[in-house]
Design brief:
Blueprint lengths: L2 E4 L2 E4 L6 H7 L23 E4 L6 E2 L10 E3 L3 H15 L16 H9 L17 E2 L4 E3 L9 H8 L6 E4 L6 E4 L12 H5 L5 E3 L12 E6 L8 E7 L2 E7 L12 H6 L2 H4 L8 E4 L2 E4 L2 H13 L6 E5 L5 H15 L4 E3 L21 H6 L11 H9 L5 E5 L3 H4 L3 H5 L4 E6 L11 E4 L8 E4 L4 E5 L6 H6 L5 H6 L18 H11 L9 H11 L8 H4 L4 E2 L12
Parallel strand pairs: 1-5, 16-17, 16-18, 18-19, 19-20
Antiparallel strand pairs: 1-2, 3-4, 3-5, 6-7, 7-10, 8-9, 11-12, 12-13, 14-15, 14-20, 21-22, 22-23
The chain binds iron/sulfur cluster (2 copies).
The site of one iron/sulfur cluster (SF4) has 13 residues, from helix 4.
Length: 561
């Protein structure tokens, strides 16, 4: 490989790389505002000016291609003075908004002002004033005074979202961004401009003014909005989720996520309609009871049916661990082969960037862990038919409001003698259930999903329940810390009494006289990986923060199911 020298170190580079890219590959950050690894080069902020031997003027590292033997200095007096001048120039018209700016704490301009500026401005005139709360579209607010004209947002809309809705207007210090006449910043990925804006010029209408960044914890997780499984950070304060942001994973979602996933996949966790204790139906009403009473009632009622009269429905919203234990519970504990799960697709949802038509996070996982009928067992349609015929009398459903997807099921389920449901929130199926167990949401438990492309990905508790508080879902503090969960922020806020579905099934099995020896989600995963070929040899460490591809021929690449 060819080499070049940067700050006295000889490093390899790939032919065609720019200085900024080659340096980044070796962990050397050259300061920049307008450059972004996934956008075209615009070279307008000038922050990445560096000195190159034998070139009389400074060059911008974002657009200068490295050549064999090139000698680059990023910390020479000349380069430092140029950076200082660029910072002074950018800050001339920048308002002193940091105390009230949503970006404070994660702002490139703020960080660079501390790192690369001498802290003095020679500009004593009145700063240029511009509009401060412009609604660019349904989700994005614009503060024109804070904009440093880097054009990242414009290039994102043109090049990634393929919705050229933004442009610059005016010139000089009056330059600003705006939407084209009659247009709004309204595309399925519009909120990514908030993440890539290096300052607080673009903010989220949903999140703005809700919290200071340093008051929140960020937990690495996976979006549940579709089978892409975009990697995300869940931001929490006082045990309440306040925002989701995309987390870089080149094999899954790069730097992006869609607006639907960002806005619609966490509010149910905070919602008032959470099921927050076990419930039994008494005289037509659901009544809150303790866990022991609910387990005892569920066990005694299950025992009153023949094994062939009981069916089970897993969930593409639940984790692999939850579905795996449901399959074990149905087969080994109850002895029923009637088990399946519902697929949820929306042909209008998918697109060519990230969104998939399968609007659940774990269809592939549910399939792989065995949520499917035995040879003589009934599939989903067979189960519904058998309920109508009075052959299936008891149904056990985890984490899926089947009636919301198929309203006809309401009449069918009304014929059941026993309906047991695990649910996170009250819904149409809990309205009919005889026994409801409160299930932890994806943001409250450990587990894995398998995305459409065969990537096994970890979720971790970002908010705590009574159960995770008590047992930390079976994982030690040091182990959870390894995955980036910050416990010091968990001190206050509402804690719901919910458990992971797999844990409810373990406890119920015990009451039914079958001991399943799992104390933590990781043990369920290890059991899965020892018995299911696709997961062979994998453990939570292998899955890590960016996922592991399952070992199966069944994975269809890029299928928009
Ligand atoms: S709004 Fe932000 S991303 Fe867009 S040009 Fe201004 S500073 Fe850059
Ligand atoms: S593309 Fe799918 S997984 Fe990604 S953010 Fe959107 S809904 Fe979530």
């Amino acid at each position: 490989m060819p080499t070049f020298t940067i700050n006295g170190k000889e490093l390899e580079f790939k032919p065609g790389q720019t200085i900024i890219e080659a340096a980044r590959d070796h962990g050397i950050e050259i300061p920049h505002f307008c450059w972004h690894p996934k956008l075209s080069v615009s070279g307008n902020c000038r922050m990445c000016l560096v000195e190159v031997e034998k070139i009389p003027k400074l060059v911008i590292a974002c657009s200068t291609i490295v050549s064999e033997g090139m000698v680059v200095q990023t910390e020479s007096d000349k380069a430092k003075a140029a950076r200082d001048a660029v910072m002074e120039f950018i800050l001339i018209n920048h308002p002193l908004d940091c105390p009230i700016c949503d970006e404070a704490g994660e702002c490139k301009l703020q960080d660079y002002a501390y790192r690369y500026e001498n802290g003095e401005s020679r500009f004593t005139e009145e700063k240029n004033h511009k509009p401060k709360h412009v609604q660019l579209g349904p989700h994005v607010m614009f503060d024109a005074e804070r904009c440093i004209s880097c054009s990242r947002c414009i290039r994102f809309c043109d090049e990634i979202a393929k919705s050229p809705q933004l442009t610059f207007v005016q010139r000089g210090d009056r330059v600003t961004i705006t939407t084209f006449p009659g247009e709004k910043l309204d595309n399925p990925y519009s909120m990514n401009v908030i993440d890539i804006c290096p300052v607080g010029a673009l903010t989220s209408k949903d999140f703005r003014f809700k919290a200071r960044v340093w008051d929140m914890s960020a937990t690495k997780s996976v979006c549940i909005g579709c089978s892409r499984g975009c990697n995300i950070d869940i931001w929490v304060r006082n045990n309440e989720i306040l925002r989701l942001t995309p987390r870089y994973n080149e094999d899954v979602n790069s730097y992006w996520m869609c607006d639907y996933g960002r806005l619609n996949t966490f509010k149910h966790v905070n919602a008032k309609d959470r099921v927050d204790s076990p419930q039994l139906r008494r005289e037509g009403q659901l009544v809150k009871v303790g866990w022991d009473e609910a387990f005892a009632e569920a066990a005694s009622r299950i025992k009153s049916f023949a094994k062939d009269e009981i069916a089970f429905i897993g969930s593409a919203y639940a984790t692999c661990e939850d579905n795996y234990l449901l399959a074990k519970f149905a087969g080994s504990v109850i002895g029923s082969g009637h088990i399946d799960f519902m697929r949820h697709t929306d042909p209008e949802f998918g697109d060519d960037l990230l969104k998939k038509n399968d609007v659940t996070p774990n269809t592939r996982g549910a399939e792989l862990v065995g949520v499917s009928p035995s040879k003589s067992g009934l599939n989903l349609e067979g189960i519904f038919k058998a309920i109508k015929e009075g052959k299936i009398k008891a149904l056990y459903v985890i984490e899926d409001d089947l009636i919301a997807s198929n309203p006809e099921l309401e009449n069918i389920f009304a014929r059941l003698d026993l309906l047991i449901v695990h649910a996170t929130n009250y819904n149409r199926i809990t309205d009919l259930a005889d026994i409801v167990f409160p299930a932890a949401t994806y943001a409250e438990k450990n587990g894995t999903f398998v995305n459409f492309d065969g990537m096994v990905q970890r979720i971790k508790p970002a908010v705590t329940t009574v159960d995770t508080d008590r047992a930390l879902d079976g994982l030690s503090l040091s182990r959870l810390d390894k995955f980036g969960t910050k416990f010091d922020k968990w001190a206050s806020g509402i804690k719901r009494d919910a458990k992971s579905t797999w844990k409810i099934l373990v406890a119920l099995s015990g009451v039914l006289g079958h001991k399943l020896k799992f104390n933590m989600a990781e043990e369920v995963f290890v059991d899965m990986s020892s018995s299911i070929d696709a997961f062979k040899g994998l453990d939570y460490d292998d899955v890590g923060e960016s996922g592991a591809r399952i070992k199966t021929k069944d994975v269809e690449q890029n299928v928009n199911v």
